[in-house]
Amino acid sequence: MANRPNILVTGTPGTGKTSTCELIAKAAEMTHVNIGDLVKEKGLHDGWDEDLDCYVIDEDLVVDELEDIMQQGGNIVDYHGCSFFPERWFNRVVVLQTENSILFDRLVARGYSEKKRKNNIECEIFQVILEEARSSYREDIVVAMQSDSIEDITKNVSEISEWLRNF
Ligand code: ADP
Ligand code: MN
């Protein structure tokens, strides 16, 4: 086992994963692994899903691509799903959550279609990602954090940095 931990930051699109991970990467010298960007850059997908309006991620290729750096530790991984990663990779799984009307406005600002907004708002209302995290990882490593405001981001970044210092 590596001495430096790996953290997964997950949550519905728009909850603030990338903003949060960028700040933690800077504050705590972690490597930010943005899975969406990696999939695009390295072509780790099986084409475009017209219906869901996103790439069809090739989970096996992503796991193979990351195995070495995950074993080294010190990564903060950013993705809106969590069940296909090997459980052993992560020492902490943070699930970001955002109040519906706030999330809605962020998805509008992002130019998401009505259908894509609806999918994501439902995902948030039914706490799909939190359930996925709780069924994929040990309960005591999964933490939910509210991400409605800039103050929330500051608080979450400092809590995660504190956890890293104590690891
Ligand atoms: P994700 O990576 O989860 O899709 P982003 O970090 O890209 O989310 O954030 C989406 C948008 O919402 C960005 O414009 C970001 O600045 C804003 N945002 C995210 N989290 C917060 C927050 N807690 N408070 C205010 N704005 C936020
Ligand atoms: Mn993102």
From TrEMBL:
<feature type="binding site">
    <location>
        <position position="18"/>
    </location>
    <ligand>
        <name>ATP</name>
    </ligand>
</feature>
<dbReference type="InterPro" id="IPR027417">
    <property type="entry name" value="P-loop_NTPase"/>
</dbReference>
<feature type="binding site">
    <location>
        <position position="17"/>
    </location>
    <ligand>
        <name>ATP</name>
    </ligand>
</feature>
<feature type="region of interest" description="NMPbind">
    <location>
        <begin position="34"/>
        <end position="57"/>
    </location>
</feature>
<keyword id="KW-0547">Nucleotide-binding</keyword>
<dbReference type="GO" id="GO:0005737">
    <property type="term" value="C:cytoplasm"/>
</dbReference>
<feature type="region of interest" description="LID">
    <location>
        <begin position="109"/>
        <end position="119"/>
    </location>
</feature>
<feature type="binding site">
    <location>
        <position position="19"/>
    </location>
    <ligand>
        <name>ATP</name>
    </ligand>
</feature>
<comment type="similarity">
    <text>Belongs to the adenylate kinase family. AK6 subfamily.</text>
</comment>
<protein>
    <recommendedName>
        <fullName>Adenylate kinase isoenzyme 6 homolog</fullName>
        <ecNumber>2.7.4.3</ecNumber>
    </recommendedName>
</protein>
<keyword id="KW-0698">rRNA processing</keyword>
<dbReference type="GO" id="GO:0004017">
    <property type="term" value="F:AMP kinase activity"/>
</dbReference>
<dbReference type="GO" id="GO:0006364">
    <property type="term" value="P:rRNA processing"/>
</dbReference>
<feature type="binding site">
    <location>
        <position position="14"/>
    </location>
    <ligand>
        <name>ATP</name>
    </ligand>
</feature>
<dbReference type="InterPro" id="IPR020618">
    <property type="entry name" value="Adenyl_kinase_AK6"/>
</dbReference>
<dbReference type="GO" id="GO:0042274">
    <property type="term" value="P:ribosomal small subunit biogenesis"/>
</dbReference>
<keyword id="KW-0418">Kinase</keyword>
<feature type="binding site">
    <location>
        <position position="110"/>
    </location>
    <ligand>
        <name>ATP</name>
    </ligand>
</feature>
<keyword id="KW-0539">Nucleus</keyword>
<dbReference type="GO" id="GO:0016887">
    <property type="term" value="F:ATP hydrolysis activity"/>
</dbReference>
<comment type="function">
    <text>Broad-specificity nucleoside monophosphate (NMP) kinase that catalyzes the reversible transfer of the terminal phosphate group between nucleoside triphosphates and monophosphates. Has also ATPase activity. Involved in the late cytoplasmic maturation steps of the 40S ribosomal particles, specifically 18S rRNA maturation. While NMP activity is not required for ribosome maturation, ATPase activity is. Associates transiently with small ribosomal subunit protein uS11. ATP hydrolysis breaks the interaction with uS11.</text>
</comment>
<comment type="subunit">
    <text>Interacts with small ribosomal subunit protein uS11. Not a structural component of 43S pre-ribosomes, but transiently interacts with them by binding to uS11.</text>
</comment>
<dbReference type="GO" id="GO:0005524">
    <property type="term" value="F:ATP binding"/>
</dbReference>
<keyword id="KW-0808">Transferase</keyword>
<keyword id="KW-0690">Ribosome biogenesis</keyword>
<feature type="binding site">
    <location>
        <position position="16"/>
    </location>
    <ligand>
        <name>ATP</name>
    </ligand>
</feature>
<keyword id="KW-0963">Cytoplasm</keyword>
<dbReference type="GO" id="GO:0005634">
    <property type="term" value="C:nucleus"/>
</dbReference>
<keyword id="KW-0067">ATP-binding</keyword>
<dbReference type="Pfam" id="PF13238">
    <property type="entry name" value="AAA_18"/>
</dbReference>
